[in-house]
Design goal:
74 residues; alpha+beta; two-stranded antiparallel sheet; 2 strands
């Protein structure tokens, strides 16, 4: 599943929960689905962040490529 698809499903799930029209059982199922989608989206964002590179000025005035440090390393 792509990030955009997961976010769209998460948004739809939240709308259904917010409407208040679902039964208790349906609400619990929607909540569970929302949690799973939220965790999936967060993992995709974390993975993307690890791949992002930032161009910064190097010591000699040129540009050099640096990657974001892992959150775990901080």
């Amino acid at each position: 599943m792509k990030f955009e698809e997961a976010m769209a499903q998460l948004e739809e799930t939240v709308k259904k929960l917010d409407s208040g029209s679902a039964s208790l059982e349906e609400s619990l199922e929607l909540f569970e689905k929302g949690i799973k989608l939220s965790k999936l989206c967060q993992k995709m964002l974390d993975d993307a962040e690890k791949r992002v590179s930032v161009l910064t000025s190097g010591e000699n005035g040129g540009m050099e490529k640096q990657t974001f440090p892992d959150i775990d390393e901080q």
